[in-house]
From TrEMBL:
Pfam families: 3HCDH, 3HCDH_N
InterPro entries per UniProt: 3-OHacyl-CoA_DH_NAD-bd, 3HC_DH_C, 6-PGluconate_DH-like_C_sf, 6PGD_dom2, NAD(P)-bd_dom_sf
Record key words, sorted: Oxidoreductase
Family the UniProt entry places it in: Belongs to the 3-hydroxyacyl-CoA dehydrogenase family.
Superkingdom, taxonomy of origin: Bacteria
Record-annotated 3-hydroxyacyl-CoA dehydrogenase C-terminal domain positions: 193-289, 499-595
EC number: 1.1.1.35
GO-annotated molecular function: (3S)-3-hydroxyacyl-CoA dehydrogenase (NAD+) activity
Organism: Streptomyces flavalbus
Name under which the protein is recorded: 3-hydroxyacyl-CoA dehydrogenase family protein
3-hydroxyacyl-CoA dehydrogenase NAD binding domain ranges (all copies): 12-190, 319-496
Pathway: Lipid metabolism; butanoate metabolism
Amino acid sequence: MASPLSPSSLQKIAVVGLGTMGTGIAEVLAKAGRDVVGIDISEAQTAACVAALESATARAVARGRLTEPERAEVLARFRTATELTAAADADLVIEVAPESYEVKQQIFRELDGIVRPDTILATGTNALSVTRLAADSARPERVLGLHFFNPAPAMKLVEVVSSVLTAPDAVTAVTDLAVQLGKEPVAVGDRPGFVADGLLFGYLNQAAAMYEANYATREDIDAAMRLGCGLPMGPLALLDLIGVDTARTVLDAMYAESQDRLHAPAPILKQLSEAGLTGRKAGRGFYTYEAPGSATVVRDALTPLAGGGLTPGRPVSSVGVAGSGTMASGIAEVFAKAGYDVVLAARSEEKAQAAKARIGKSLSRSVDKGRMTAEAAVQTLERITPAGSYDAFADVDLAVEAVAEDLDVKRQLFAALDKVCKPGAVLATTTSSLPVIACARATSRPQDVIGMHFFNPAPAMKLVEVVRTVLTGDDVHATVREVCGTIRKHAVDCGDRAGFIVNALLFPYLNNAIKMVQDHYASLDDIDAAMKLGGGYPMGPFELLDVVGLDVSLAIEKVLHREFRDPGLAPAPLLEHLVAAGCLGRKTGRGFREYARR
């Protein structure tokens, strides 16, 4: 006979609260062979849940994932009720009511008098203290957190949250159940946001604050994070999906615990919430939607006009690229593929020739993969002229520097370009963290200087951050926007401040992940898994840090901290210790993880 806490004994499960999440959890459980009762005080909500389950299982049959008899069995295992007494014989109760202590505590108090002594009570909260909910229960050792992600049928991650009061066998039983449901459980302690939301909502909050400051448009912020980081959604669109009010609740709880200004909800979240503009569910949030609940964005007063500004750009037919590293050769390849004549200049003829040879190998790989013809590859390479001196830039229309990320080096280069390049040439820096204005002031023509921040590898990455200084000419900005279109890159506009869009949002998130490990809250593997499975990130934060390089990451963190002077942006000591020890990531064979030497 199964023990009371074996996962196989968790056969009868009650789900309390049949909103989107509760309905999704009920579907997962019923499909996995559990007997499920869905409980909600609203009869309309219970009816909507039944309809959603019928629709989801019908789609599964149509796609060949379920047979008609299997569908009938799933539907037969699910029933609904409007009273908590329907949970009397449940082995496990999962509560997914609104994020309110009063509401959840009332549910738990009532359940104490209804369910068996051995029943496990799980809360689906992502913002409230599991410990506080457990302490108010008559059976605190039976209370834990079970945090699914939306949409529950599709998302693999489940965070299993223990309080100091939770019995280990209850955690084990629920963790094993999650595995049987086809999910990947991650064990976490009780703090607001847990792992995935703890990292995600800080990032979303920063994006909201960036938008509120009019630093960049909502479209450019969202495009930058999708194209620059490979995220499935931009942060403002994601806030609309989650619910602006929900995000504010989670951030309030996080800030109450951390007192970290990065978690203090951006005022715009309060303004939108109190105006009822809570996102998709209301039909309007950061964006405007076709109807409440619709995913279709429609034009509103803030939607940018097609075609951009009226200022004409300058003609560009030849481009100079300064540098011989990976970024310089990648940028030269991009321009040559788009039909521009390219001068690739380095500190010596040998370095320039080596950079051109690297481009040749890259083009050959493209031919091998069927992405371009051999003839096109030859023609592209012929458009690139290597040079051992920047004097070769005398006739270029656009000069793009991609040299070392060192302000003194860049200033010297811009002073040289000022002397060499013809009047009217546009001068661009690819810096990712240094002030563009400092490069501009090294010239006698600061109005001609602009930032063009490409992402690595430049041939593959679609994003370019176009960075105007207060002195950049309108026609120079227009020129670079037009050029980005020609080279088939997506340009986003931003001002000249540290991190621009992508790094200003990405690196505080990475830093917060390091702090979680530093505080022994969660392991590297659990955090990486949580962000990939729960947030849709292509890489976990520690995988990404090791790829980027810990020294590069630390340098960017320091720049952000110095510019914004926010204590929450101070680099995590663990990152500084690893860099001091020479553990810089994949390039040294060891960073947060160890790698095989090549």
